[in-house]
Design brief:
Layout lengths: L6 E7 L3 H10 L6 E4 L11 E5 L2 E4 L13 H8 L3 E2 L16 H22 L18 H11 L9 H6 L8 E2 L3 H8 L5 E2 L4 E5 L5 E5 L2 E10 L3 H5 L4 E3 L3 H8 L3 E2 L1 E8 L9 E3 L10 E4 L6 E7 H9 L4 H14 L7 E6 L12 E2 L8 H6 L6 E3 L12 H17 L3 E2 L2 E2 L1
Parallel strand pairs: 1-2, 1-10, 2-7, 8-11, 10-19
Antiparallel strand pairs: 3-4, 5-6, 8-9, 9-10, 12-18, 13-16, 13-17, 14-15, 15-16, 20-21
Helix pairs in contact: 1-12, 2-6
Length: 420
């Protein structure tokens, strides 16, 4: 843990994956740097909780997406974190009695055809809402929309097809047995971070930048801003002079909402390990459930989009109550007594996130590049929303922080063979 200095060469705002990636990239540069974090921990939207003695809960990111290209994989190996390569419980591993294979195949055909229509439409370069490519009257449309709430954090009406097509997915999805959030915390453990140090404003009108925080002010030559788009769009950090193009870009890349709930399972043998539970549904407002992840005695529920926001706004415990209701509806009322609420996430009410991860609104896919662009070789921007192809992921955030740090270093004059 660091202390607030009066002056540094480079200040990094935010100790999530992006901020930590930037800080690691600055090590050995010869420049002084400090990470300013509003929370009392590192990790940002990556956070592992010990929900029970035998249950870990990744309240935020939990999957190493595009794992064969994910920069956190070698970091995990270097730090001694075991990686689990078990097949994800998303497509082929549904509960046969609840979602029979014949219906699953019909649904997969419908959603694959939906994605094919979007891919073809995106070739024109004209952006539009993804919902326009649902087949009128298809019985699976509500369920396809539900998948969007899990993937994008919002319904298809608010999703840009060009942004969807820009995302790169190798379809390799692995997990960290000790928790993705725990891995990110270990990655940031030795860095100079000042906690409970929320930044309120950045004055870039003078020769040096003036950064105001809850713990006081400091001067810096350069700053790397890694906070989520909702904070920039809502001007939780004020810039002087104002940066309307950045605010507008962030507003076009809002954070959708996904929340998870962990339930303890008293009779683990009643459910398969690493299975999936989701019924064929005509409702978008439904959860999906990961049964006994890592073989542990628990069920992890996942809710997205406007339904997740409705449940979060209803108060603590609403996600667990809904999850238990849905599981009992599918597997029978006897399961009510077998399930116990352990933990839940509430990212919409998290003051330093205000959502889960970014999506581009229709017509705003190009705003990721606008948000990422430096200003005057002094203000640099990172975060998952600035990643051109790995947005909404922790590794996309980490990589963007490294990119922003390299941009900052490239802007520093070299004197007598030394930076600075």
């Amino acid at each position: 843990m660091g202390s607030l200095s009066s002056s540094v060469d480079i200040a990094i705002i935010g100790a999530g994956a992006a901020g930590l990636g930037a800080a690691h990239a600055l090590e050995g540069s010869g420049l002084s740097f400090l990470v300013l974090e509003g929370r009392d921990r590192v990790g940002g939207r990556g956070h592992t909780v010990q929900a029970a003695p035998d249950v870990l809960f990744d309240a935020g990111c939990g999957w190493l997406h595009s794992a064969d290209r994910n920069s956190f994989v070698p970091i995990a190996e270097q730090l001694g974190f075991e990686i689990d390569r078990t097949l994800p419980p998303w497509r082929e591993r549904g509960h046969e009695k609840v979602f029979p294979q014949a219906e699953r195949l019909e649904f997969f055909r419908a959603i694959d055809e939906f994605y094919d229509r979007i891919e073809e439409a995106a070739k024109s370069g004209h952006d539009s809402s993804a919902s326009l490519y649902l087949e009128p009257g298809n019985r699976w449309n509500p369920m396809i929309d539900a998948i969007s709430t899990y993937v994008n954090g919002c319904e298809l009406d608010d999703v840009s097809i060009l942004d969807m097509e820009a995302y790169e997915d190798s379809y390799a999805n692995w997990r960290v047995r000790r928790g993705y959030g725990a891995l990110i915390a270990a990655y940031g453990a030795a860095l100079p971070v000042v906690f409970n140090c929320a930044v309120t404003s950045i004055d870039h009108s003078g020769k040096r930048l003036r950064i105001e925080t809850k713990l006081g002010s400091l001067a810096a030559d350069r700053v790397i801003i890694t906070v989520p788009t909702n904070l920039i769009a809502q001007e939780a950090i004020r810039f002087f002079p104002a940066l309307p193009a950045k605010v507008q870009a962030a507003a076009g890349l809002p954070l959708g909402l996904d929340n998870k709930v962990m339930l303890g399972l008293s009779n683990p043998g009643d459910l398969p390990e690493d299975g999936n539970l989701r019924g064929a549904s005509i409702r978008t407002a439904k959860g999906t459930f990961h049964l006994r992840p890592f073989g542990r005695p628990c069920v992890e529920g996942f809710f997205g989009g406007s339904f997740a926001r409705q449940l979060e706004d209803a108060g603590i415990g609403a996600l667990a109550a809904e999850a238990i209701d849905e599981i009992a509806e599918m597997l029978g009322n006897d399961f009510r007594r077998k399930l116990t609420p352990l933990a839940e996430s509430r990212w919409g009410h998290d003051a330093f996130a205000r959502g889960s991860y970014s999506h581009a609104l229709p017509g705003h896919a190009g705003k990721r590049a606008v948000l990422a662009a430096p200003i005057d070789d002094r203000l640099f921007f990172a975060g998952e929303a600035t990643s051109p192809s790995f947005f909404s992921t922790a590794h996309g955030a980490r990589d963007s922080g490294e990119r922003a740090a390299m941009e900052a270093l490239a802007s520093v004059p070299v004197t007598n063979g030394r930076v600075g």
